[in-house]
Design a protein that fits this description.
This protein is of the alpha/beta class and 262 residues long. It has helices spanning 2-12, 37-50, 78-91, 109-116, 129-136, 159-177, 193-202, 232-238, 241-255; strands at residues 18-22, 52-53, 68-75, 95-99, 141-145, 183-185, 205-207, 226-227. The two termini are 21 Å apart.
């Protein structure tokens, strides 16, 4: 118990930053991974009151007076442009949108079926090329790379295909939309040494699906993210230093004395 309390106190003395992971911002509250515009507004209102909401690279700077939080949106849903962007503009909050090139213009329904299931697909679901072009010109928004077809990269055995998913998708975004792309999000979260090396050689930073706060010694190519499709109360708990310390302390206790917590 003493070790747990000490762990909490030690973590509270730090100001671990955080990256939040959103996907769709639609009007259905019963779809997994979706938040309604009203809920996103409540999130942003809370975050701007309590934290410095910053562009993604800024979470790597930890010696700040206030905790920093960055917002990310995966896959490139069209409702980011229609529903989320007006809220971000209202509160002057930056965000990164990770675009899967094969999803743009709903060009590959079979990819969307694989990603969302046939019940989740509808026409005009994903960002159009015209919308991506407008986002590129949007001061608050940065477009990032989310691969060509959204595979679990650890299952891509062919080296040429893996390179096409990561490096090729980045090149396509840059060519098609005349933008520099230096941020990457691993689809579904998993990655291995092969994908990590390709990302490291072609991007400035990358985010995962590991639900943690950003530690002082975080690897810029393995940044953790907290799922944000939740209530404001639960988000407050996920952003809590106490929760983070509890997870680590309980992990150490489960591992036993002298055994590192992996």
């Amino acid at each position: 118990m003493r070790r747990f309390v000490d762990g909490v106190a030690g973590t509270l003395s730090k100001r671990s930053n955080a990256v939040l992971m959103y996907h769709s911002v639609g009007h259905r509250d019963d779809v997994y991974g979706n938040v309604t515009p009203g809920r996103l507004r409540r999130h942003v209102e809370y975050l701007t009151r309590r934290f410095d909401v910053v562009d993604l690279p800024a979470v790597l700077t930890t010696d700040t007076e206030r905790k920093r939080v960055a917002l990310t949106f995966d896959d490139g849903f069209a409702n980011f442009h229609t529903n989320a962007l007006p809220i971000l503009r209202e509160y002057e909050v930056p965000a990164t949108v990770f675009v899967t090139t094969g999803f743009v213009d709903d060009a590959s329904p079979e990819l969307l079926d694989a990603r969302l299931g046939p019940d989740g697909y509808s026409s005009e679901l994903m960002l159009s090329a015209a919308q991506v072009e407008r986002l590129v010109d949007e001061e608050l928004v940065t477009v990032g790379n989310h691969t060509a077809t959204h595979p679990d990269l650890t299952t891509v055995e062919d080296a040429d295909r893996l390179e096409a998913e990561i490096v090729g998708a980045k090149a396509e975004l840059e060519r098609r939309f005349d933008v520099t792309v230096d941020r990457f999000a691993y689809p579904y979260g998993p990655y291995d040494e092969r994908s990590l090396e390709l990302v490291r050689d072609s991007h400035r930073l990358a985010v995962t699906g590991v639900p943690r706060l950003v530690a002082d010694d975080a690897n810029r190519y393995e940044l953790p993210r907290l799922p944000a499709h939740t209530t404001r109360l639960r988000m407050r708990w996920r952003l809590s230093e106490v929760r983070e310390s509890a997870k680590r302390s309980l992990g150490r206790a489960a591992a036993g004395p002298g055994v590192p917590n992996r």
